[in-house]
Amino acid sequence: MEQPENIIQVHDLRKSYGDLKAVDGISFGVSAGEVFGILGPNGAGKTTTVEILEGMRAPDSGIAVVNGIDVQKDPRAVKKIIGIQLQSSAFFDRLSLVEILDVMASLYHRQIDALVLLRDVELDDRADALFKELSGGQKQRFSVASTLVNDPILLFLDEPTTGLDPQARRHMWELVQRFKSEGRTVLLTTHYMEEAEELCDRVAIMDHGKIVAMDRPAALVDSLLSRGFQKERTENLANLEDVFLDLTGRALRDE
Ligand code: ATP
């Protein structure tokens, strides 16, 4: 049987800012339906990579192909099929959540039911609120809802849970899992290893612009152990997060 083409294929991508090699010759592929994580410390080049894939930033060299489209050659075609999480500053201050989604959908020439999208992220009861009136977790959820206005086959989520409380973080994980179950591909960046283990089918670990490891999370752990890695054993049947969630519940608390 013919191998399905990767929905993302990147070959020897490079991007420098002056002397700084932000992305230094990376290559990887993501297959359709995968949740793929790019992990790495601050400044590793994750956002630059994602922005090149979104057609928002031009690489110096290398090729990025999304769903068979060369991003450099036809960024508009790519933008039609992907969901991009905007920075919160990009939202209109004077419009309600429903109005913002309607405006965004009209940019894609799409008819949407904004309330359905808001329900997806449990914000339908804030439909008439302004973006600036939302809590941090609600803003993050709204920005995820906004990525869905064009019913994308591929979602880019750049640090979707940074700054969220444990309940809101878990809720975001459920959303990502739902996107996967709907057959969408998700590429996310994160600083949280627990998040990557929970969500990602495969991860690429980036450092100084290069991919230093790429595999399934469990395979990366096995490979570390097979190299003789050991750490002091501690058996924790629960941790502080479990205590926190036990005391404060798992329901969203940012209303
Ligand atoms: P973080 O986890 O902090 O978001 P990151 O892995 O996403 O980091 P990038 O934002 O891609 O990293 O940045 C990679 C490097 O390129 C950093 O050293 C950053 O300072 C630099 N950089 C990014 N954008 C620019 C720019 N427009 N001009 C100059 N340098 C930049």
Descriptive labels:
255 residues, alpha/beta
Question: Could you explain the architecture of this structure?
Answer:
The chain has 255 residues and is of the alpha/beta class. It has helices at 46-53, 75-81, 97-107, 114-120, 136-146, 166-181, 193-199, 217-226, 240-248; strands at residues 8-17, 20-30, 35-39, 61-66, 69-70, 82-84, 154-158, 185-190, 202-207, 210-215. It has a 6-stranded mixed β-sheet, sandwiched between helices. Strands 2-1-4-5 form a 4-stranded antiparallel β-sheet, with helices on one face. The structure holds adenosine-5'-triphosphate (ATP).
Quick take:
The chain contains 9 helices and 10 strands.
Q: What secondary-structure arrangement, pairings included, does this model have?
A:
Layout lengths: L7 E10 L2 E11 L4 E5 L6 H8 L7 E6 L2 E2 L4 H7 E3 L12 H11 L6 H7 L15 H11 L7 E5 L7 H16 L3 E6 L2 H7 L2 E6 L2 E6 L1 H10 L13 H9 L7
Parallel strand pairs: 3-8, 3-9, 6-7, 7-8
Antiparallel strand pairs: 1-2, 1-4, 4-5, 9-10
The structure holds adenosine-5'-triphosphate.
- What is the distance, rounded to the nearest whole angstrom, between the alpha carbons of the first and last residues? 50 Å
Report the sheet-strand fraction: 15-25%
Bound ligands, each once: adenosine-5'-triphosphate
What is the count of β-strands? 10
Molecular shape = globular
Radius of gyration: 19 Å
